[in-house]
Design goal:
It is a single chain. Helices cover about 35% and strands about 20% of the residues. It is α/β, with parallel strands linked by helices. It folds into 2 domains: about 230 residues, Aldehyde Dehydrogenase, Chain A, domain 1 (3-Layer(aba) Sandwich), CATH 3.40.605; about 180 residues, Aldehyde Dehydrogenase, Chain A, domain 2.
Length: about 500
Amino acid sequence: MTDTTISEKTVAEVAAAAAGAARAFAATAPRERGAALVAVADALDAHAAELIAIAMRETGLTEARLTGELKRTSWQLRLFADTIVDGAYLDARIDAADPEYVIGPRPDVRRVLEPVGPVLNFAASNFPFAFSVAGGDSAAALAAGCPLVVKAHSGHLELSRRTAEVVTAALAGAGMPEGVFQLIEGQANGVELLKDERIRAGAFTGSTHVGRLLADIAASRPRPIPFYGELGSVNPAYATYADQALLDGFVASVAGSAGQLCTKPGFLFVPEDADLTSVPAAAGAVAEHRLLNPGIGRAFAGRRDAVLGAPGATVLSAGEIREDEAGQRYATPTVVAVDVDTLRAHQEELLEESFGPLSIIVRYTDAAVLPELHRDLFPGNLTATVHARPEELADGSLADLVDALADTSGRVLFGGWPTGVSVTPAMQHGGPYPATTSDATSVGTAAITRFLRGVAYQSAPQELLPAPLRDDNPWGVPQHRSAAGGSTEWGSFAR
């Protein structure tokens, strides 16, 4: 694919159009911008059959999976629409002028979160709807009031172009400024745009290698910008028992969407005496599934060879890889077992993320070593999971392990499996490096804060204040007010 944009514009013209739309888009009233997001959601739903058919052809994902993913995408837009109208995300704070302020006279100070400006979003391969053209990062940036440029993923270009057409028409129909949404293609164009001074933030979902390269570009600009990259995560799970139901659930989570999920459990820790005889049958019952594209297929084949060849690894299910005449690979689950000593001794072969239907079961002899082991081997994860009996959860014996998981993971699960990220206000989909480049969430309403910056106005006339900070509050957003005279009561609530 040549490095061309979807339109006739150059990269510089795309950046200029986004920058030109920034002030007008930031000034849109909450209900107007929220209505625009709802219009996009409605348009995606109206074109669902067409879009899903294209996605199935380009990615090999199933109709059921893609139907659910598109629904998630459109309803995420609706959730952000309500978030905008509610206005609490703006964190509007108003401190009244106070000549008797205890540490010296205080002027009138008002602070609010404002859009950072044009955002560049690098779309993901494994979620052609939910983390692509109209997905989570795009929805959060548009909700924040930031013009958006999406760099299409080469694995689903036709879908990206058609989705962009749907989104562009919906935004225009809702009266949003021209230049608010644009699509570009090609790696070179994406890098060039990331370096453009008019881009004020970046977002990415993909491999650790590529994400780190882009993050370094963003940080090394003459004017560095925030870059929110979701990179690699192995999502370890720790179990104090291993019955058949647990192991069947584990295999199902590993095999879902051919293991091409950022929350796939890459490791399951079980007691040394756990009976793993049900794993081969569970893995063997899974039908082959096409991997997303030839590049991902080649990478998975290499990782699978490295894991199967690791010294001390016991193969529970070798799985299979089949390549067709177009270079697409189809895989069934691979599961191996090792002990803790083998895992420590062969980290190079075993610890790297395997993006595909492969996972490693680790036998341990003493649960007391798990917190330290986890901190040593898994410093940054999107998720970590605990499976334990109710009495073990209640007696506090797992407190140290849970502390270790919370220190190193964005989401800690008790029971269940991490694949499947609910789009809900309280969700955290992020984690310490290398899970992400910046420990923020890319799912849930808190994701909007990545594309906002705080601005304080001191002694400003009402006519020049942004709407959320004015005394008449025309947008009707929540305002936290600190009245004059309150400073003399500081500390009273702590007594």
